[in-house]
Specification:
The complex is a heterodimer of chains A (240) and B (238). Chain A contains 6 helices and 8 strands, in the order E-H-E-H-E-H-E-H-E-H-E-H-E-E. Chain A is α/β, with parallel strands linked by helices. In chain A, helix 1 crosses helix 6, helix 3 runs parallel beside helix 4 and helix 4 packs parallel to helix 5. Chain A has an 8-stranded mixed sheet, sandwiched between helices. In chain A, strand 5, helix 5 and strand 6 form a beta-alpha-beta unit. In chain B, helix 5 links the parallel strand 5 and strand 6. Chain B contains 6 helices and 8 strands, in the order βαβαβαβαβαβαββ. With 238 residues, chain B is α/β, with parallel strands linked by helices. Chains A and B meet through helix 4 and helix 5 of A and helix 4 and helix 5 of B.
Chain lengths: 240, 238
């Protein structure tokens, strides 16, 4: 009897959008669920990722430190991925991030802020561009983002640092354009918005990302297969 | 006569120039942020209004330039009634199915998103008296809920969505302190955003400037509600 091939996920944004955090948690959870995981990570998450690589006994994790500002490094990682799998089931960008300093009157070093944006928001596009041919050969063709309620313009009503929510909303916009381009070709999208309240852990996110939803665009609660929507762990849909 | 004072960024041509022209007609003292000194339309306008129009060198993506511009106004001992953040650039990276060119995408964020935040941080201290109007020229391209694009212009759309988020946060912070925040989509303008004059576009910058100024100067009720409105006076979702 032939063994079933493991499902494959490409998990990005580790350390470009968060200091490991939920991204590392997601990698660990996908490994527990027997997925094969490809996970490039940034300098900022190096300590957490190296610890994960040391502690995991799974040979299903391929993880390398890269800089997502550089297309050539991403291309090289994706070439390695192509040698190890014939298609991707899921592209996941973990864009949730902790608050950093940088209010209206103390934004700090703008060069650094622009570089953060480059690595995180443009980095997501660089990864997806390179991974798209592999995703096209997968069955699920699923593109997903882990985001935050704080990165929704309609939900953001408090003060705080500027650049993280600005970067987060830019990623949502990139997702909208990609959705318009790819949804009709069978690609499905999920945007999970974490909240400080419950239902925001890796199991909740995993469940939503892989859940089957309705294809009926007239069904506002469940029509995620044909619409670009943001939901939280309770299934509640949010305005952008 | 005490004139009301406004600073307009990206005033060299297009919508910014027309906003300056209209506000001068209406009797305002206009500080025009000049990025392209070789482009002569602004100087021609100054010849018409030598007392009322002052040109200030300004690159909104450069924090030193923003600070120097604020210092120039501060040294004159004046305050501002209105700041109009109009400066923006445009660039297309291509399709995600090909090799995208991200070389200018970081600049889009610097100019279109961080520029207005930097300007706001630098000029709000000069706006503690007067009308306290903070105005931002955004775009429908920044509306995720009404996104129609299916490729290209990723960086531009992302930069305008980021600007909308920044304006939301500025609104949360400054509206309770008496500032009136305006967000405007100018329409598809016959301007030079693509490097050459866009003759295919449908909307005239002078007409859009007139609607923009009406929007910027009108009192909204309630001010607690931030909305993006366009040159047809219609509202856009975020």
């Amino acid at each position: 009897m032939a063994l079933l091939k493991p499902l494959t996920a490409y998990i990005t944004g580790i350390g470009s959008s968060s200091a490991g955090g939920i991204g590392v948690e997601m990698i660990r959870y996908f490994l527990e669920k027997d997925w094969k995981v490809f996970a490039p990570y940034e300098e900022e998450a190096a300590a957490e990722m190296e610890e994960l690589i040391r502690s995991t006994s799974s040979d299903r994790l391929t993880a390398t430190r890269i800089d997502s500002c550089h297309s050539t490094q991403i291309e090289s990682f994706v070439r390695r991925m192509e040698e190890q799998c014939s298609g991707l089931e899921l592209f996941l960008h973990c864009g949730d991030m902790p608050e950093r300093k940088g209010g209206l009157f103390d934004m700090g070093n703008y060069d650094q802020l622009a570089e953060d944006y480059d690595r995180s928001a443009l980095g997501m596009l660089r990864h997806l561009e390179q991974a798209l041919p592999l995703l096209a050969r997968g069955e699920r063709k699923r593109i997903a983002m882990v985001s935050s309620k704080d990165h929704l313009i309609n939900s953001r009503n408090r003060k705080g640092s500027f650049v993280q929510p600005m970067t987060g909303v830019a990623r949502h916009m990139a997702g909208a354009i990609i959705f318009n381009d790819l949804n009709a070709q069978g690609y499905r999208f999920r945007v999970f918005c974490r909240d400080k309240e419950g239902f925001s852990g890796a199991p909740d996110i995993y469940r939503y990302l892989l859940q089957r939803r309705s294809f009926d665009a007239g069904s506002p609660l469940h029509s995620d297969e044909m619409r670009y929507v943001a939901r939280d762990g309770t299934g509640r849909e949010y305005a952008w | 006569m005490i004139r009301q004072r406004v600073l307009v960024t990206g005033a060299d041509r297009g919508l910014g120039l027309e906003i300056c022209r209209e506000l001068l007609r209406q009797g305002w003292k206009v500080y025009a942020g000049q990025y392209m000194p070789d482009w002569k339309e602004l100087e021609t306008l100054r010849d018409q209004y030598p007392e009322e129009l002052q040109l200030l060198p300004l690159d909104v993506s450069d924090t030193r330039s923003v600070k120097a511009c604020a210092d120039l106004i501060r040294q004159q001992g004046t305050s501002l009634d209105m700041l109009i953040n109009n400066a923006a650039i445009y660039h297309e990276e291509g399709s995600i199915h090909q090799s995208m060119d991200f070389s200018l995408s970081r600049d889009l964020f610097r100019v279109n998103s961080l520029g207005p935040v930097s300007m706001t941080g630098a000029f709000v201290p000069l706006m503690q008296e007067g009308q306290k109007r903070l105005c931002y020229v955004s775009s429908e391209a920044g509306s995720i809920g009404a996104c129609m694009r299916d490729q290209g212009a990723y960086g531009y759309s992302m930069s305008k969505a980021a600007l909308n988020m920044a304006v939301r946060m500025i609104h949360s912070e400054l509206q309770p302190r008496g500032f009136r925040i305006r967000l405007y989509h100018p329409g598809w303008l016959k301007t030079y955003m693509h490097g050459h004059k866009n003759e295919e576009a449908t909307d005239d910058p002078a007409e859009s400037a007139l609607v923009a100024i009406g929007h910027f100067l009108r009192d909204e009720s309630p001010e607690e509600l931030l909305q993006m409105s366009d040159n047809k006076e219609e509202r856009w979702p975020f």
